[in-house]
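Quick question: what would this complex look like in 3D?
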Amino acid sequence: MTEVMVEPWMLLVVAMIVFAIGLLGVILRKNLLVMLMCVELMLNAVNLSFVAFSRMHQTLQGDITVLFVMTVAAAESAVGLGLIIAMFRTLKTVDSDQIQMLRD
Amino acid sequence: MSELEPAYPWIAFSMGILITMLVSVVRIDTKRPAQIFALLTLVVTLFLSMSVNVETPQSLFNGVFEISALTTTALSLLCGLGIFFIIGTSRYLTKEEIHLSDYYHLLLILILGASVLICSKDLLVTFIALEVMSLPAYTLAGFRRNDSRSNEAAIKYFILGGVVGAVFLLGASFIFGATGTTHLSEIYTWSQKAQGDLTLFYMGHILILISFLFKVAAVPFHFWKPDVYEGSPTSVTGIMATVMSTASFVVLARILHIADFKSPELAPYFETLKQLIRVAAVLSLIIGSAIVITQTNLKRMLAYSSISHTGYVLLGLLGSMNQPDLIYSVWIYLFGYSLMTCGLFVLVSQSEPKLDAGVELIDLTGLMKKQPFNVVMWSLFLFSMAGMPFTIGFFTKYFVFISSVNTGEVFYVVIAALCAVVSAYAYLRPIALMVMRDADPSAAEWKGSVASHSVVAVSAAIVFALGVMPNALIHLLKGIPLQH
């Protein structure tokens, strides 16, 4: 069995694909919970890209960044879930198509 | 003397937030303690930030935190705005039945995030400060929990803000990939001897730029602003329009000066960058001023007006890209715009609409008979927005135009001046409604507390005084460079 080296560019390709999935998910999906998950997916894709670049430069700075980003992402999802619950209480829906009181 | 001494205002601010939080845990049912401690925190921070010696800029914590004339002046401005809003909108919050102790400490965290954002010299710290500023803002936007419009504003703001945060981070990771550092001053040193293929750096820079153009709501990234402004509680909208956009503009200025663009390698990219800023500025000016005249909801109108003001600030930033010392026109704009917007939003928060709808222009009819004093205040702030002489709004526009003319962007000044004329109609229309029309049967009542009237009067006095004698302000802000 031959050993395959994981090069930084491979990680980057994966990171970009995951980021694109997240971005498309936010744009295309209508369920707010799924949109929240897609935002988290984007943040995690960025984490992967930080790790890849960190490895490329042989430093630890990128890896440390990932820890901070993970913390912020956790706080963000907590706030997001809270907001979605608050909205569900008044509107009884988590469908982004059905919330359109604010219009020109 | 401790080496942390220059950071005392920020440390005191954080301590104050912890104490406010503690107080609100102990006495959750009343508003007074939280409000008093929040005010106390801001006042102490204001005095400390004015007493810091900033003759030589200093950087702390491995250089990620800059303390200079720019950051202390901005911190004083943010604290002042915070104090104005806390005093001025106290009655509004009680009326809307907002949970007060939570409100005040979230507000303080928001202002802390904004003040750290201004000092940050590292992309990671910028991201964290950005989120510390934004997360309370999402929550505050949804603070009228039983109003579905407030919930909708919060959700929209949250989803878009989350995407923008991720885009910023992606940009930061690209810059990290290209330069091997997230530190702004190291990026600057790197750029002076950058060679070869810089595509990764350019991509990262553009992504970061987009995320902050989004935060300041420059066209074409403006679509969230009217909805969020309309849905959020008025006091929170005021904080967004002043504190958050001031902080975002300072970061935008840092991002536009992130690298040494004079080096021949980066010069072609710099021209493209300027072109992008020109396009964003002109689009913001035209779309902002064109739509502002069609609005009937007061907060939506102010949202579109702030989009057009974003255009003017971008013109000022464009001038500073050509000639870095012209950055003072941006500082004057942010200072003046924050003051008049603060006064206007405190005025808007005095309304008591009869229906559950937002504050409409029609609510202003007949105000002359009910509250002649307030009509004078409204007129002063609206004149200032339109850029009439004898108000600070005139000088904010004047210096932006001067800096653009000096750097050869005459064509854009002409467009901006035309847009100012068009949007003047939108600012004069409310005054006409107040003075010339009798009260509409559906018009709202307007009641302000003594506190909110005095906040309005103080900010009006500053707007007028600086419009007559702007020299002191200009002298203060002219000496503030953007550090590297």
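Answer marked as accepted. Chain A has a mean pLDDT of 89.
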